[in-house]
TrEMBL record:
Record InterPro entries: EF_hand_dom (IPR002048), FucosylTrfase_pln (IPR024709), GDP-Fuc_O-FucTrfase (IPR019378)
Gene this protein is translated from: LOC107481200
Pathway terms, separated by semicolons: Glycan metabolism
PROSITE patterns given in the database record: EF_HAND_2 (PS50222)
Membrane topology term: Single-pass type II membrane protein
Protein name: O-fucosyltransferase family protein
Provenance organism: Arachis duranensis
Classification of source organism: Eukaryota, Viridiplantae, Streptophyta, Embryophyta, Tracheophyta
Length: 502
């Protein structure tokens, strides 16, 4: 494998880790001062142009989202022209890679990062990924309906060529055949170089019809790991429509103070799939079971909910969540943004949570109907809004560790180890049951809940590595290779085998 000496710089015009932030403060200060001077001149020059103004505003907002609580720093970056795309890499392409992503928005997001990395490793030309339209969410959106495709192609062109479609001359009429296949899950670079690359000498086009978790979490060369991050944190931007509306949600929330983004994964698909019916009526449990049987690719059909729950494999219910938030010490006045689709059981199931935290907010309540309607039937676009708000929140709390929880966690680590409370559901269920049957008074319950989560706040730690990929920490939840560019990572992450901190 070719190792390029210049490495893959994760260009960092955004804040990455507190350490960097401090050392860069001086640089920022100088930039701020010079920006103010430049700005003063500029503003004198352009006093009227409405067009210019609107570009300016969208420039600011698209950065604030990434810089999180630092709007001042964010605005200064606007003074610089947006960075031009890097010069394209000159390489001989070995063929075209077509990919059909599977799953929901965040699973596909991770897969897109992996596919770019594989295309780079094998010197391929990547075709803009196709998104899943047949998953549970049935969102007809294409890549360009969710992500800024021009930015995606342009910002990665120093690594890999990306095209919108396979050129006509490579179609079957001209004697080319496409090989359709799914690469083996959790593979490393050796597998791709030795097993996959040879296919391209026979078929000019190879089509991966499944993309989830096809690349190992660990053991890959550093430049590939960093490329995964670069795609995730820099090349994948949502469309301007999604960015603008997401920014608006964030602005509304911030104007009223700090807020928690609660990824309350108490949605029908989750409950049907996991078989978790704690707190549901008999009728609801039956409805969920029917749904589980209706989906052939959900393998497990007979599930004992209580067993699952005691193993910590169920999303917390809204009622359990209310108690846990109280135990963690959140104030009654805290704004709680529900980053989720429709809660199973609707308002009725949210009653207890709302009684404990009256400032419960959902995007449907915060935006006018005509602002949201264009996204309404596109679950991935709605999920993109929740993703943005979750990344920008003061505290992120997922009630289940699915793909959204993991990707947001990783994004927040990247922004400087922002607080994400990673609930230990197995311990919580024990404590909740003891509290609810009167064994554990609230004070003791609260102490215990806080103790359990002391080291589960998104602090720096090393990924847990295992022989079984499913048991190890997910790369995208903790992309440690990308979290402390230019600083001594070991200082921040602790000794190499401190993974048991978690
Ligand atoms: C790309 O590289 C090849 C071989 O190294 C060279 O002949 C060609 O001129 C390069 N093209 C550009 C645009 O730099
Ligand atoms: C990819 O291209 C580079 C030159 O740009 C070459 O050194 C490397 O061996 C190529 N790798 C593969 C897998 O073709
Ligand atoms: C992917 O393609 C292979 C080979 O054609 C096929 O056996 C497999 O069922 C396909 N998988 C999906 C998810 O379409
Ligand atoms: C969304 O789907 C529902 C039900 O299929 C339909 O009634 C509604 O008109 C759709 N809304 C939009 C904006 O397309
Ligand atoms: C409360 O629940 C725990 C375990 O769930 C059980 O061991 C204990 O006996 C129960 N206490 C009461 C008073 O029911
Ligand atoms: C790290 O692992 C090594 C070997 O397994 C062990 O000897 C050492 O004590 C561990 N260090 C820490 C800090 O856990």
């Amino acid at each position: 494998m070719e190792v390029r000496s210049e490495g893959v710089q994760v260009r960092c015009d955004k804040l990455q880790a507190p350490v960097i932030a401090r050392t860069r403060l001086r640089v920022w200060f100088i930039r701020v001062c010079s920006s103010i001077v430049i700005w003063t001149c500029l503003i004198q020059l352009f006093t009227v142009t409405e067009l210019w103004r609107s570009n300016f505003i969208s420039g600011i907002t698209s950065r604030i989202y990434h810089t999180n609580q630092r709007p001042f720093l964010a605005e200064t970056t606007v003074a610089q022209a947006p960075p031009p795309y890097p010069p394209p890499r000159n390489y001989t392409s070995n063929g075209f890679l077509r990919v059909s992503c599977n799953g929901g928005l965040n699973q596909m997001r991770a897969a897109i990062c992996d596919m770019v990395t594989i295309a780079r490793l094998l010197n391929l030309t990547l075709v803009v990924p196709e998104l899943d339209k047949k998953s549970f969410w049935a969102d007809p959106s294409n890549f360009e309906d969710i992500f800024d495709v021009t930015h995606f192609i342009g910002s990665l062109r120093d690594e890999v060529r990306i095209v919108k479609r396979v050129p006509k001359k490579f179609n079957t009429k001209n004697g080319y055949s496409t090989l359709k296949m799914a690469p083996i899950s959790w593979s490393n670079e050796k597998y791709y170089l030795e097993q996959i690359l040879p296919h391209f000498s026979k078929h000019k086009v190879v089509h991966f019809n499944k993309t989830d978790a096809r690349l190992a979490n660990n053991g890959l060369p550093l430049d590939l790991q960093k490329l995964r991050c670069r795609v995730n944190f820099q090349a994948l931007k949502f469309t301007p429509e999604i960015e603008t509306l997401g920014q608006k949600l964030i602005r509304i929330l911030r104007e009223k103070g700090p807020f928690v983004a609660l990824h309350l994964r108490y949605e029908m698909d989750m409950l049907a799939f996991s078989g978790c019916t704690h707190g549901c009526s008999y009728g609801e449990a039956e409805e969920l079971k029917r749904m589980r049987y209706a989906f052939p690719w959900w393998r497990e059909k007979e599930i004992v909910s209580e067993e699952r729950r005691l193993q910590g494999q169920c999303p917390l219910t809204p009622e359990e969540t209310a108690l846990v938030l109280q135990a963690l010490g959140f104030d009654r006045d805290m704004q709680i943004y529900i980053a989720a689709g429709e809660i199973y059981g609707g308002e009725h199931r949210l009653a207890q949570l709302r009684a404990a935290f009256p400032k419960i907010l959902k995007k449907e309540m915060m935006l006018a109907h005509d602002e949201l309607w264009q996204f309404q039937n596109h679950s991935s676009q709605m999920a993109a809004l929740d993703f943005m708000v979750s990344v920008a929140s003061n505290t992120f709390i997922p009630t289940y560790d699915g793909n959204m929880a993991k990707l947001v966690e990783g994004h927040r680590r990247y922004l400087g180890f922002e607080k994400s409370i990673l609930l230990d559901r197995k311990k919580l269920v024990e404590l909740l049951d003891l509290h609810q049957n009167g064994t554990l008074p609230f004070d003791e319950f609260s102490d215990a809940v806080r103790r359990v989560h002391e080291n589960r706040m998104g602090q720096p730690f090393r990924r847990r590595v295992s022989d079984k990929p499913k048991e190890e920490d997910y790369f995208y939840a903790n992309p440690q290779e990308c979290l402390c560019e230019g600083t001594k990572c070991d200082d921040l992450l602790g000794p190499r085998n401190s993974s048991e901190v978690r």
